[in-house]
Amino acid sequence: MESLRIIAGLILLILGRQMFWVFVAVVGFVMGADLARQVMPNSDELTVLLVAVIAGAVGAALAYFFYQVAIAAAGFLAGGRIGVELLAALPPSSPQAASLAFIAGGVIGAILLLLVFDWALIVISSVLGASLIVQQIPAPPNMSGILFVVFVIGGIVVQAQMMRRGFPAT
Q1: Per the domain annotation, does 117 fall within a domain?
Q2: Predicted TM-score of the model (pTM)
Q3: 32-35, long-range: CB within 8 Å, 24+ apart, which pairs?
Q4: pLDDT by residue (tens digit) across 49-62?
Q5: Residue 127 domain-assigned (yes or no)
Q6: Which residues contact 47 (CB under 8 A, 6 or more apart)?
């Protein structure tokens, strides 16, 4: 499952804006896997993978058939995940704080994607992609932070160059 998270992170870093439906599918896949692990802590990897694939497929279908709803939903889920990860970098907090961080990050992510779609999608997909990759790399905490920043900047630069060169978003 770790290698799938790295692949998903790379896809988000490079193609987050260019292939919106893939962005939504990857966000659904990651959130589905995380939710399956929380709801069914004793389940095997195949069950977690199945739930993740179903969630990703639902996300891709949502993006295809209900574009505006998918934008808001993807922004909410990605922003919520980023909010929780930012909270995790702080001293220990309560489960209520994690829920509030998820909701606050989700609302901000949804609003950003709806208002400034291209740039918000580039930044959110780069942050989420970098996070997925760095979480799988065993490194000291200070090195993880540096890697995270490098991956985020790299993802933003790559996607911005693709946008500038006229690669259409789908």
Answers
A1: yes
A2: 0.74
A3: 32/56, 33/1
A4: 899 899 889 888 88
A5: yes
A6: 36, 40
